[in-house]
Protein 1
Amino acid sequence: MNTVQPTPHFLRNAKSVAVNAALMAGRIISSYTGKNLSVEKKQQHDFVTQADKESENAIIKTIRRAFPDHDILAEESGLHKHSSVYRWIIDPLDGTTNFIHGLPLYCVSIALEISGVITVGVVNEPIRKELFTAVSGQGAYLNGKRIRVSDCGDPSRALLATGFPYRDYSMVENYLQLFKYFITHSAGVRRPGSAALDLCYLACGRVDGFWELFLNPWDVAAGSIIITEAGGSLSDFNGGKNYIYGGNIIGSNNHLHPWMIAAARDYFSEHMNLLSNPKPDRE
């Protein structure tokens, strides 16, 4: 892959486009709140509504107007490929099941990957009106105010977040063993139902660590740079860097990372080769 060094002007423009798209998508989603929704089942425990589709269409149109030649990887419509070093990774509504049930924990997630590196991330949580943003080398922000991960270094005092497997149950026994370990060795575990928000909550210190299996790039791309720019750490379950496309991720405030990786290795030892191998783009 060719590498590109983006200019400060380009990064400002890209962030502005992502913010505008995320805010527009949030307004679309909010317009459906409390209304009867047409819900389609994509596969077991995986749903899509007209809010997802309209949000994604609005985001793509906004990006296309500014950057017509960039690649786009979006949850509902897949990969729009132009063989570009620029790839936008979009989740138009992360937490669709929450949204369908009126549980106010969902968001819009937009990231820009340049030459294989996530460089811009924007997550918009429309209910609480919280806008998380990050640009590589420029820090992470919540509604314009700088955010940092927590300084908790004691696992027994740490609040963790996770998501339960909901499509692939092939490793559910290992997952439940790891879950039991974490709930008995931490201050508690939460399962909000939106990986993108979990990552942002880690970035601003609301939780101290996060782990999850079987995620897609659009679930974690934007949140990943928000965490790293907030001073946190990310890896796959084996401690490697294949957490965007590998499908498994551990995030922490740095202090807890060795402890979380060691636990994941213990409980997923027989699956580690599979978890460490890259997965292809979902098209």
Protein 2
Amino acid sequence: MRVASGQAGGMDAMQSNPGERPTAAPALVAALDGFERHLRLERGRSAHTVRAYIGDVRSLIASAATQGIARWEDFDLGFLRWWLGEQRESGLARSTLARRTAAVRTFLAWARREGIVESNAAARLLAPRAERVLPHVLQRPQVDRLLEQSADALEDDDATATARHDRDRALLELLYATGLRVGELVGIDLDDVDHDRRTVRVIGKGDKERTVPFGVPALDAVSDWLRRGRPVLANDRSGRALFLGLRGGRLGQRQARDAVARALARLGDTAASGPHALRHTAATHLLDGGADLRAVQELLGHSSLNTTQLYTHVSVDRLRQSYQQAHPRA
């Protein structure tokens, strides 16, 4: 690893008091604004991804300050490997290390195109392979119970409680029917739902639009919400949002997550939690039922087929469990 303290400008990145944390060089921090605009406007990355990537590059810059590095020219492969090793030693998960490596590669590739650096030292930086964790998937009887309880269970009979019940039932049915991400769900407007064709138009990652089909149970639940529940909560803050919070504004992601978490907690016999569990479940059940892998990729809005293939592993794993339980020579 190259230590830049002997190079021009290197020690300017360090504070004079050895007991204080070194301050990153302004020239390094200044590039972050341009990189953030690149991610948002040119790459169309989600707000979550932008925050994560900017945070990852900030971590890199902070580590550079501890080594007295104040110029982008000094971000060589040796330093990047040292930084990644330090991240590993701190106990970060492999998935986080893989993302941080991707963030630094993306940043330095952008910096090279902008003339900030002459070469992308991260191009040869190897990230640890992320562990492939099989997601929790509901069994079909569990899904039936989940959706039946959403249709039947009502703790209170006042208008607001009934409206929330209708809303939660509709969003649960729609999440399982479509495999939508929670951000896509809460972004749906009234005009995005085609009741005749039973499809919904959503904006996914990278601002990519797609149209997703859904079935009759989801249509019935959404129709009940629109007829009985939404008018109770709607006010001048509602706009064209399909799903509303209790104060009438567009339903937020946290509120949607809470609704799903409550419903899953009532099952009592699953480790699945949150809206993504229903996305995993929908994809797995489609593949179990014989759906084409590329059709499921299109439904979920995955840019890479490799991401969708995770669900084939879920199905194979379930098949293996069934085989081991049932076959006399397993």
Protein 3
Amino acid sequence: MKVFKVLLFSILVFVSIAALSYVSYLRLIEAPLEIGEDFIFDVESGESMNGVIARMTSKGVIDKPWLAKIYIRHKGLARDLKAGEFTIKKSASLADVFEILTSNKQIKYRLTIVEGSTFSEARAVVASSEKLVIALEGKSDKDVLAILQGETISSNDSSALISEKQSLRFPHPEGSLYPDTYFYHKGDSDLSILKRAHQRLIKVLTEEWQNKSPKLPLQSSYEALILASIVEKETGKPSERGEIAGVFTRRLEQGMRLQTDPTVIYGLGSRYKGNITRKHLRELTPYNTYRINGLPPTPIALVGREAIHAAVNPLAGKSLYFVAKGDGSHQFSETITQHNNAVRKYQLKRRSDYRSSHQGNEN
């Protein structure tokens, strides 16, 4: 009986000590650290939890690295560490710190690819954005498109940049990105942003093409993208997208040339200095829709869903011409006589920032 009492007493003592120890452990890991002020902690890609604990100890954030290691093992957090920048609050406890570092609460940055910009301009925006890893430096637009489409390119390090092949193929980089605002965190790459923009474009284009109006004079979703890019560049007032698309659609149906200045400008490239001359309009390029029939060979800009939707769901009507009125809107006309009258009325007041001009100057 005496042995039993001793054993029972020993067990009670052990349990009490264990309970007190656990309570002390909880108090320690939940107690605010003596940080002083909020700060940003950067976890490098591939860094280990022990490495993070060592760096935090050297910075004075953690004064009991042994306790941190016990907590990590207790919670099984070693494999949950995330890369990126994290804001550590001055009131944070040890538990708070590792909850943050194993979450997806990295500091986020943002960049915006603007509708109507070009593929090259979008690449420049992405490449100049802070905190992004640059993986595509020195690669041409053509090479970047090949990478986005999962093709092998002639580069020593191309194998690291190849993605899964896709079904919808783009013969040219222009138009192959979706303009939008993209959020990212430190450690993301320019390639990761462009991949997201490319896949987003494919998704939106596919959805809109599947819900297109019947009997369009377009043979593929890529032709719809080309037309959408022209609509995008000609639209100063968003509510007119459908009507502008209707003008171009009827011109295509009737075998009329599109005669749209933005295509001429795109075809001139760096030679365009702000003004279109008669010489430019007479010059035969693949993009000069005053000289070629039908659509140009590729899009001329990056386009959003609204322009794509307008291109595949053009507004019904009879207008075949339009001219900028000077306030972002256009005057639409059914006949060349009406159009010429509108040109005389509004071109006298035309400002240098007008986006559309010469539709209807028949050859």
Protein 4
Amino acid sequence: MFFPASATPDSKRLILTRALRGLGDGFVSVYLAAYLQLIGFSTFQIGAILTGMLIGSAVLTLLAGLVSHRISTRRVLFAAALLMGFTGAGFASFDTFWLLFFIAFVGTLNPSAGDVSVFLPTEQSILAGEVAARDRTALFARYTLAGSLFGALGSLASGLPEVAVRRFSVIPADAFRAGFVFYTILALVIAMIYTRLEHGSAPTASNGNIPLRKSRGIVARLTVLFALDSFGGGFVIDSLVILWLFLRFDLSLQVVGAVFFGTRMLAALSQLVSPRLAARFGPIETMVFTHIPANLFLVLAALMPSASLAIAFLLVRTAFSSMDVPVRQSYVMSVVPPEERAAAASVTSVPRSLASAVSPLLAGSLLGFSTFGWPLIIGGVLKITYDLLLLVQFRNIRPAE
């Protein structure tokens, strides 16, 4: 059975919306850098747009967290889906830097298949209460799996614009813009699914949700560590790794799309293993001892002299790199009281987005000077530092269940 026995219909709907967002993000994120290069943007400008996306996501998530006790989570999600549609329509319609930078800032487009938008903490705060405590990590694993699996399918489909150009003589820029139209259509479907949610129809304050009080200390410590992890991760978001592969090895979009289909499939399948590892070894141990090897392989990929070796190490890296995601999400929801989950999800997400927003601009500048994989090395070292600090500070703090 794919869903845990105690999962509610709302949890299944949220897993479906996560899958559809993964499909859209996976499709667009692979060719985003190629499209921006095609319309004449420099590596610095591409990095700036990616930074704008991440900062805008952080600001939007913060605003949603500040009003979460007054507005129902269902309305927040529905409004975010409409904003997602606006984002796709904007990228399909305009090609000037400042307009796209503005749309990137206020919109929901992700530079990777991983979700960094307002959707994630809002959905997580609902999901945590839609399953029995014993099944929480398993449910979050399915939630993350859905995003990764459909993100992989989106990556595979990202070569379609290139096929359309070659076989049907479609103007390249128009072929890419059609992908953003597809992203807009997905947003409207997601908005319709949100209207069917049974929970989250009332403001969270009426459901007993309050700002952080009891868990303020532990959430603050986790937030600082997660921000360090995200700062390192910002150097290696998918769009930047793809840009590095383009510049370093001159790969085609179809090849890169196939590579990222493989990486995301491995990431998706690995997340089915993480709940069992967490149950046997503990959540912190699972997060740390799967994350460290992943980041060592990331550093090694940057040092490889050929595309085949670099891709091989990137593939091995992704077999480990996402195992910590459902465990981390479940862990945060488990170490705070139920009434503080919405606030905890928002508080831990915003600094992650802000920290990761600085890195793409730096990475884009580095790639402008050299095609060597300095962003991968810097990102890997920072993320290993996070792993060691997390192990030292939280190894003995266990979820109540």
